[in-house]
Amino acid sequence: MAHREEAKYAPLRTKILWTLLFLVIFVVGRNIPLPLMHEAHGTAGTIGGLSSVTGLATGGNFDSPTLFSLGLGPYMGANIMWRFLMIGRLARGKNIPEQTVNLVRYLVMGALSLFQAISLSGNFTITPVHLGPFPPAGTARVLSVMMLMAGAAFLTWIANQNQDKGLGGVTSFIVYQIIITAMTNWHPFMQLVHEPGSGHILIPVGLACLGVILLGVFAGNSELRLKVNKVSIDNGFTGQSYLPVKLNPAGASPIMYAMTLLMVPANIIHALGIVFPGLEAGSQTFLQHWGLTSPIGWSVYLVLLFAMSIFFGLFTVSPKQIGDRMQDGGEYFDNVNPGRATKSFLRNRVVFLSGITGIGLVVLTGLPLFFLSHYPTYQYELMAPGTFMIIIANMWMLYEEIADTNIGRKYDFHLMAAQEVTA
């Protein structure tokens, strides 16, 4: 714990160097090809535009098999799903031991990475491996899946290290993925610009990008201030205290995690179709109706996008923790009783703000994906509004993290630790 606190207040230069080191490792891992997987075949695009778009939001690379092809999808999915598994205990205010939290996360992440690795391996031709009495094809697939899972576990460890020692945490890798993807697709984009009749796609997407930029800048720099009364402190000489709540408390997390959750059942069904050949036909039928190119998959994504806006808004602000803290500290809002009424008051405010920004995300970043079924080759262009939102939200978060680091360096961590030991 002391090591994490010391890393938290490390100089900004040190944090930047750590992040650069982790990004170098990420770049190297993304370019280490897996030896047994090659020659993508037709099933690589069966999940209707979902794989490539999800890879953009999770740092994955589903177009070519490399050590880090799975990206951070299993890690991000586990972070969401463990909360759903523990939601009953969290709602009752029970403290969950850290060992239990880590165990559930690792188990869920292991299961998700297994299904995703099997699913990805089914998109490529695998060279058989003759190893003892085992079937060559099965042995090669098992080895490929193990290497993909090992890469995902190592990348998760790197992301956690960046969270402790560097800047940006998981999002640093996602932003890098977005930049690399944009650079790779720059020439195809320019070709699209010069194509006759492309304006009916580019103009709506451009307007949506402009709306996302305005929403991201406005919501990232604005907050709702709720007046807080403090017993024996508030008076005419000390001024007033406020509880700030961001207008977009969820940031860009709904986009990244909605994509991740949409990919989870697709990976599971696809993996089952690979492991059990009798289920392959049903698996392919499901995948055709689950991707973003189908009305069902697209509609589910919009619902997840809005739901994740509410979920992350409540998770970020945490009305329960704030309500308990205010009650313990003798703080209250005007005309609102401490305790349950305060928690309900905060929850309603957060849900209202998250709902508004959720609608904005659905309209500006979700609706453009409707055209993906008619123009599947324009997937990165249609994802541009969501990409801008991810970049803007992460830039705001990075700015705030740098500001916190500079403030923290005004205090001597070692001196503070020595004082605690002396006391």
What this model shows, in words?
With 423 residues, the protein is mainly alpha-helical. The chain has one domain: Orthogonal Bundle (Preprotein translocase SecY subunit), CATH 1.10.3370.10. Helices cover 67% and strands 5% of the residues. It is built from 18 helices and five strands. The chain has helices at 2-8, 12-30, 50-58, 73-85, 87-91, 98-121, 136-165, 170-184, 186-193, 199-220, 253-275, 280-290, 295-317, 319-328, 340-366, 379-382, 384-408, 413-422, and strands at residues 37-40, 124-126, 223-230, 241-246, 331-332. A three-stranded antiparallel beta sheet has the order 4-3-5. Strands 1-2 form a two-stranded antiparallel ribbon. α6 (98-121) crosses α11 (253-275). The radius of gyration is 24 Å and the shape is globular. The two termini are 19 Å apart. The model is unreliable at 415-423 (pLDDT under 50).
Summarize this structure briefly.
The chain has 423 residues and is mainly α. It is built from 18 helices and five strands.
CATH class: Mainly Alpha
SSE arrangement, N to C: HHEHHHHEHHHHEEHHHHEHHHH
Strand order, sheet with most strands: 4-3-5
Which fold name fills CATH's third level, the topology? Answer: Preprotein translocase SecY subunit
Portion of residues in helices? 55-70%
The SS-based structural class is mainly alpha
Number of domains: 1
Low-confidence stretches: 415-423
The rounded Rg comes to 24 Å
Shape: globular
Largest sheet: 3 strands, antiparallel
N-C termini distance: 19 Å
Q: Give the CATH superfamily.
A: SecY subunit domain
Would you identify the CATH architecture? Orthogonal Bundle
How many DSSP H or I helices? 18
Number of strands: 5
